[in-house]
Amino acid sequence: MIAYLRGPVTAVTLTSAVVEVGGVGLELHCTPGTLATLSPMIGTRREAHLPTSMVVREDSLTLFGFADDDEKSCFELLQTASGVGPKLAQAMLAVLSPDALRTAVAADDTKTLTRVPGIGQKGAQRIILELKDRLGAPTGGHVAAISATSEPWRDQVRQGLVGLGWSVKDADQAVEQVSVDVAPGTAPDVAGLLRAALRTLSKA
Asked: Which HAMAP family does this UniProt record tie to the protein (predicted)?
């Protein structure tokens, strides 16, 4: 199994990134939050270090990349619940941080879990039942790390799109597309980005 990858990022799409290791480009499926941290590295030759999890199927080998070991552990643990495969586990981590998931499961909060596309009320109840004693208590540190590095405009644009009726998946894709026009560390025009995201979704 491949535990982690270290190398320069050569490409980032809406759902994956390519990391060069030993002259070979390996594609990693990542959450939008992780991809947002990798996009600025393209062309800089800065090395990214990503914990990974390999999902083996009869006809495929798929690598998933994560922001840290906690996210990786949560991804693998989520898949032990009935009906949760790698795609749904990744979707859960795209919407909720590991600590937010722990908090929701510990509090029997099905409403929070059903925010994830693909999880209904019964599915949320099953996940809580099967994982309540396994996910553990919130650590606190992971949430703080996300808050310190996240870009507020992303959440504002995403929430605006969802409020206008777009799905979380479509909103995340639109946010990633307009993010290329935002210089790192700047405070962009959120209203302008929301209009640009809407134009992107309308074309799609």
From this structure: DNA_HJ_migration_RuvA (MF_00031)
